[in-house]
């Protein structure tokens, strides 16, 4: 069991720096914001494929970004550090701490949880074959709350039914932290 106090967390200053750099880039080039990048990295680490920070750059950002070389180096270093924090949480076996409220109710535009889940599902779809190779039905079951929260599948009838019931929506979102650990164990259990 991991000592949760020993998890290598980003400092408040590092989180703010990463958040601001990603937010500025998202505003300029419609790339992933902090929550989407966090979700994307979480899925890459949860899944069965070896983590590579270059996958984040390839999927989360346009080919040309507005980052200066120094900013790009800072973002890369902070994403690598964030990946170590996420990996430690996955290894801990504790419910995963999604970095936002577990609700889609937000009056200020896109809820951070939707952005986080969209980032997560983007990584799953990138590596879909590997994710579903071991037990497609079980993986789909554990992915369902994240799929729902992402908004990427809102045309599916079962998603619309959940959307119409705010209590059910909140219950579905509340299942995400447990689902992440279950997915991680299912996809990596034999390797640990």
UniProtKB/TrEMBL annotation:
InterPro entries: YgfB-like, YgfB-like_sf
Pfam families attached to this UniProt entry: UPF0149 (PF03695)
Domain of life according to the entry: Bacteria
NCBIfam families noted in UniProt: ygfB_yecA (TIGR02292)
Entry protein name: YecA family protein
Annotated source species: Thalassolituus oleivorans MIL-1
Lineage of origin: Bacteria, Pseudomonadati, Pseudomonadota, Gammaproteobacteria, Oceanospirillales
């Amino acid at each position: 069991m991991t000592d949760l106090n020993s998890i290598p967390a980003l400092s408040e200053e590092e989180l703010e720096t990463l958040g601001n750099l990603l937010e500025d880039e998202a505003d300029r080039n419609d790339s992933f914001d902090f929550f989407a990048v966090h979700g994307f990295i979480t899925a890459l680490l949860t899944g069965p494929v070896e983590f590579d920070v270059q996958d984040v750059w390839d999927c989360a950002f346009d080919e040309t970004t507005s980052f200066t070389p120094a900013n790009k180096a800072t973002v890369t270093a902070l994403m690598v550090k964030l990946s170590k924090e996420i990996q430690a949480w996955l290894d801990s076996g504790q419910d995963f701490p999604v970095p936002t409220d577990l609700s889609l109710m937000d009056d200020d535009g896109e809820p951070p949880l939707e952005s986080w889940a969209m980032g997560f599902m983007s990584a799953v779809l990138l590596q879909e074959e590997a994710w579903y190779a071991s037990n497609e039905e079980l993986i789909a079951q554990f992915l369902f709350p994240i799929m729902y929260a992402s908004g990427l599948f809102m045309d599916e009838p079962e998603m619309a039914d959940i959307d119409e019931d705010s209590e059910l929506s909140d219950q579905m979102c509340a299942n995400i932290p447990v689902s992440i650990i279950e997915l991680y164990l299912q996809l990596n259990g034999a390797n640990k």
